[in-house]
């Protein structure tokens, strides 16, 4: 008697037509073609919105999930109902269930990425409910072996997570496979906080349970029909069907970005699972097949991307350097290679008719060896430890600076005001934080106090946040982002341009060179402070301008003791302010620096670290509350950064900080942002604040750059205040080189340099921030606005919200200051 074809079912006679299996193949290809691009496209939309400074579209992922359910689930439903072949119907049922599960998981992505613990908890609960429902549905199907249950012959089921007190060799082999898939993650990734890691483990276990319910014993039994059984058919055909089902499961397993590596690594494990089940059928009495191998292999494979990668760091903003996106891609590629090797190896070793499954002892030794290897890799080349987010607790009471006494003009008056502001801020923080600090210390939440904004940064997740939010002295609680470490430095951007032979075009355009040559003013006697990625203090254009002393450099990220730059952005921006050799507006001014960005990302707490240091510098290792020296504060601050919601800021979090700096007589310039040409895009602190001079960018023809953010600011205030050259600006880069960059980041330090020239020309103006801002506006020259639709009617409420007062004019401003 000839063997039936692989799509035939002994319980479904006359089902040998090839058309059902052709339909199944087409539906499987269609499912892959829909799911992969939908997931990648959704992530890209998120990234584009982030890059343009727009809010996430809350309905994006729910709609994408519903669309996938309809496009994949509809043909899968037809497969589950129409063909007479039991195998094809089983295939349709599994893919239909996978599509519905994907749709339910996708709804969870409405949770903001900054709340990763809440997302993982929701995923764990949703996946557990899905596994329960799928298991109940399987038990109701007549003639089908449920997951972990007995076959129609009546054999008793295996019970327990491991398939019994003494796990079967195939279960141990599945655990070994899952641990092998984890190896790249322990080497190249890093864990979040304790709660985040525990929730990731629970979510991964629940995803494994869903896979076990989808690919249950009844599913595998459909592909093992025939006499004698043909394991190769089970591996090839069953593995393909299982791979598509696992692709659907992987597509929903993680926040936007975290699911992408799972799309590569999970589907090939379907072949390994098929080989394991082929081996299990040979060993199990009366054909009993446990779901434990599926649960373990899929659960461990899912744990890697869920636990060892922060989805907020899988971003296009970090592409271009060897940062998290690069290492996640490397890890996903390594995981794909491991998954393919597992599929091929298990298929060859276990799926042959007369293959001998390794003994339980051998399999257990393999698992133990892999566990040791995981620990060794994590403690050796890996990044051991927990790197969860922190919380910024903003207190209700903020210092009252409304009745400061009038100050004398010039530096003496500025220093007196700075001392008084510092005293009031510290007194308010000490008094109002005392009780809360004691409680936080008792709970081992590692509190760190701030005074510039009356706030405390602490460890904690959603539970701590809820508890803190309910305390009467607390105004609100924000997430303070913490970057996970990389397996190797991300790399520093170095310039390839030649050194300038004279003043750069942007210096000439605003007339700074005329200030040097005709007015004899270069910024001598003024100090500019920069908060950015750092500064290459050895660059020939910057080294002579460093103020020096033990209170001119602060690095809250890495604790460096001398000016260094981890990225390149900070060296470039400071060079445009005070660099020598034709790149800086005020080459005679001195500078001090602080690191508030690491790998182009920051957090509310580290932004505060640097702003506090600028108000009252302190020696390395000193206490900002007691060792601050407000008389050593820089005169002007240049800030080419913004704090968006993805970093944890809300609109008002830094408002008390800039108000205090303004009250102390410290001039603050801030970049408008690069999220134009949309109106209302000046919205990331500190750019929208009224006590900050906000700077947009123009090109060499005085046209506002399309990327330059526009007003009005939240609340309706006109922003930016002025514009400056920000397209094709050449300045210093780490390593002694030079580079050309675009952005409002490049425009802002030039305005800070102009203020340095003004205050150098007239020291009596130092500390008179309001008068200085007005002089800059009054002496600005017209700039040409640009519009999103190239239509003047799209003027964002008026050209003042595009060009501000116009292009800053250094020569006119210095003459007016004199």
TrEMBL record:
Tell me the PROSITE patterns matching this sequence.
Answer: SUBTILASE, SUBTILASE_SER
Record flagged with keyword Hydrolase: yes
Which range is the signal sequence, renumbered to this chain?
none
Question: What Gene3D superfamilies has UniProt attached to this entry?
Answer: Peptidase S8/S53 domain (3.40.50.200)
Protein name as catalogued: Subtilase family protein
Q: Which GO terms describe its molecular function?
A: serine-type endopeptidase activity
Name the catalytic site residues: 532, 569, 745
Q: Give the matching SUPFAM superfamilies.
A: Subtilisin-like
Per the UniProt entry, what species is this protein from, by scientific name?
Micromonospora avicenniae
Hydrolase found in the keyword field: yes
A biological process term (GO) from this entry: proteolysis
Residue ranges occupied by any Peptidase S8/S53 domain in the UniProt entry: 524-786
Keywords from the UniProt entry: Hydrolase, Membrane, Protease, Serine protease, Transmembrane, Transmembrane helix
Q: Give one Pfam family.
A: Peptidase_S8
